[in-house]
Amino acid sequence: MKTKLLLSFAFALLFGTTNYAKQKSNNDIKKLISSYKKDIRGPYYRIKWYCKDGSVRDSKDPCPDSIGGGIQHASFKESALDLRKTNHLFFGEILASLNNQDFLDSENNYSRLKQYQLGKYLASIDDGWVLKKGQYYRGSVQSEDEEAWGKQFFETVLKDDSFVNNNYYLVRQALKDIPHNGDSNIAQQMRSESKVLAEEIPEFMDIRIKIHGNPEKTDIYLVESFIKKNASKIDSKEKKIFDKLLQTMQEFYAPLNYKTIANEISKIKDKNNVLSSLNDFLNEDKSNLSAKDIVIKITENLDFLRYNITLFNNSKDRLALLDLTNQLEKILLIETQKWQPATLEETILKTQTLTCASYATGLVEAWEFDLIKPIYATTLLNDKITLKDLNSLVTSARRVVEWSTSLVKANYQETVNKYADFESFAYGFIDDRIRNSVTLNLGETVSKLNTFASDISNVNNNVMNISNQGAIRGLNPGYAFGKLIVVDGNPENIEVNTNNIYIFQKPPSDLKPVAGIMTVSEGNLVSHVQLLARNLGIPNAALSSDNLKSLEKYANKNVFYAVSNKGNVILKLENDMSDEEQKLFNKKERTKNMITVPTDKLRLDVSKIINMKDVKASDSGILCGPKAANLGELKNLFPNKVVDGIIIPFGVFKSHMNKEMPSKNKTYWQFLNETFNKATQLKKGNVTEDEIEKIVIASLKELHTAILNIDLDASFIKDLKSNFSSVFGDNLGNVPVFLRSDTNMEDLKEFTGAGLNLTLFNILKEEKIINGIKQVWASAYSERSFKWRQKYLLNPENVYPSILIIPSVDVDYSGVMITKGINEGAENDLTVAFSRGAGGAVDGQSAETRLITDNSSFLLSPARQPDYIRLPATGNTKKYYTTFNKPILNYNNINEIRELASEIREKIGKQNDDNHAYDVEFGFKDDKLWLFQIRPFVENKQAKSSEYLNAISPKTDSNKEIKLKEKI
């Protein structure tokens, strides 16, 4: 399936095709930003009076009291207003006269509100950004009007219980950015000012890193000492920035006036027992409290406030309490740095406390936190812990860090990506939000806990010489050698090279084959990218954002990379490789696992449409590909769970490939074979593989284009219409369908081919179905498809696509099941990943991933995909947004999944007389399960059995006991 195609459909439906056509290019937007930065008015036009009756007057003609008066602020240049219409971009936003719902922009996932936050961030790190000169345009923005608007905005939107509960994190973040109470985002200001200074004075970089990564009050002394030591080198402009930074730091680390807060709390109108604990804490003498005591008490109150916030009926009370949570969180972040646990027990307690704080500040949902809590509760009741239980606790704690960072990304990534296309500074926004949260210190604490457990387990990573390697964990075993490429931003437009090792924030959904992968956001364990990596023995590991940044200095250097079967990771420079590691890369070792796809059984004489019910699994690779053959088998085995379908067999494709190719004096098939014959001759002539690949890809591109324009036989179209009507009960063009590519080079014993070719979603119109058939055929010759096949198959040119056509099922949620544990769990367990809407989990969405056993369902990661698609009866797709306050799969779904797995093992496993695990795609519509595909789950046996990988896998005694009082 092609994510970019789906997104373009969704975007057009969401914003309208007219506006989409008129969109400004990124280059146009860059030019606009540049012009605004140089303009003394920025994006503003002139000062106007905005009257209560809706009229607008010139700056020297105030609104009279007789019509209710008004407010004064700048109007916008036509270019800025036009950008709002064409690109939904809002630069230099002025709040004072906005409509609440327009600014909230809920139909676009709160895009306008988030853009305001991102704009404030960009202004803080780039001297005003689009207002570089315009920030001094007198009268353009009136701070008192902005604050008054912010206050009424929050008092309005906070009336909605659902909005508060579903968007708790976003609400608290918005309170930091939208003026409403004389407040400001001091933490962000402190980081921004230190960043500016580090760019001006490289020697200040170490202190900047300290302020960003491990902020403490003693940083004030570091800055003061730096100024004193470098006084002669600091110019007047830099001195002003240093003075401002010190002022900001003093304000940030100033003691919280608890009595003032208590006085504010006393004004809360809704008197209930929720505030009794909070008042006790605020009025308590804290002189004898340790940092540990304060962190625990603040966390308890933040937890209580989040859980009970909607018990306060007055939105003004809610606003005051939510502001208080931000004040308390600020103190929590400072005191957390001071709390330095000495023992294993206290480190676990701190981890437990900060996990609770993650929930309390909105980074983890209530249902997710409820699943994690019992792990800590039982651990701290004893005086010892086994190594197995300690490693399990570390894994759970590390997940909370990942869930927290992924929630920040889920809220803001779409907006950041949109801006990053024309403003690279935007990438820093998410990192800034994560650093201004408990996630930063929770990650450090979990890393220390992991290091302790790893030392005892002998599971130690060896990743260059970077710090906090405990955050790195292997996903797929394997080893690789190649150039290291670090991609910190959006990966979608990155052109990858087969021989390189890539580190991504998130892998692109249509990733071409690479030597090795490391990702900050793994997506999910059963996405097409993950399955292909597992299938081909491509080493794959997860790491933290900080790890990625630490590895940037090794970019473009040759490295050795390995992931063991136990998940420990090695990454070293070429010069540091051992003799044994160098021997792994001789040609004999790397090519012995290549396979040839048999073509002798192909029935190319069958050139008529086939009813899916008339094929079975044994027809795979003969009449059609495995998707259609297996689904036909499944229709007979699970008649109520599988839709009807029709198949365009290999023979139809081949008969069209036998047509003469325009302007070539040869058939399409002859052109294809000549391309590969030429490649064989070039290889004999010692032409490099890279050069040969370029020549082949160029020819395949030509073939791809030609197939898109091929004339379909009239007899074939008549046959298609007839079978469509008889099987689906209506004429072609009246029933929305999926067109699924289904080649003879998929689901082989040692090669999955998952997701390499095109699937078209929910196509309705006859013309689009006809053109879609050609698109699906042509996709077999795309660069990505060819490169993956070439990496594993000796005859990648012998690809024959069939097409499976099935009616669309507008599922509520969908996903993938592997009938075994992957990375965790046992052979009889189930690894399941689900996303909302259609096409769930297979394209690398941040899916709800679970390990389902006979009697439990263990959450590996919650869904963090904010958008999803549905399949309307009118065709195409429609984009929606979601929140994460509820799990996707319910209790009945999980039981039905267990039953399905049991049936598959009984009906298919025993029928084939094998113990294969299976890769199953399915979905739920109104709690009814619909089955879409079953294929063998293919793992790379060479990687799993490699002597080298076994040698670097640690040997551990999981029953070893450790005293909780042990020093850490």
Please tell me about this protein's structure.
Residues 1-21 form the signal peptide. It comes from Polaribacter marinaquae. InterPro entries: ATP_grasp_subdomain_1, PEP_Utilizing_Enz, PPDK_AMP/ATP-bd. 46% of the residues lie in helices and 14% in strands. Strand 1 and strand 2 (56-58) form a beta hairpin. Strands 5-12-11-7-8-9-10-6 form an 8-stranded mixed sheet. A 6-stranded antiparallel sheet has the order 23-22-21-20-26-27. Mean pLDDT is 87; it is low at 1-21 and 587-592. The protein folds into 6 domains: 3-184, no CATH class; 194-215 and 218-252, no CATH class; 258-411 and 421-457, no CATH class; 468-591, Glucose Oxidase, domain 1 (3-Layer(bba) Sandwich); 594-808, Dna Ligase, domain 1 (2-Layer Sandwich); 810-939, ATP-grasp fold, B domain (D-amino Acid Aminotransferase, Chain A, domain 1, 2-Layer Sandwich). With 968 residues, the protein is α+β, with helices and mostly antiparallel strands. The protein is globular, with a radius of gyration of 30 Å.
Question: What's this model, at a glance?
Answer:
The chain is an alpha+beta fold and 968 residues long. Helix content is 46%, strand content 14%. The chain folds into six domains: 3-184, no CATH class; 194-215 and 218-252, no CATH class; 258-411 and 421-457, no CATH class; 468-591, Glucose Oxidase, domain 1; 594-808, ATP-grasp fold, A domain (Dna Ligase, domain 1); 810-939, ATP-grasp fold, B domain (D-amino Acid Aminotransferase, Chain A, domain 1), CATH 3.30.470.
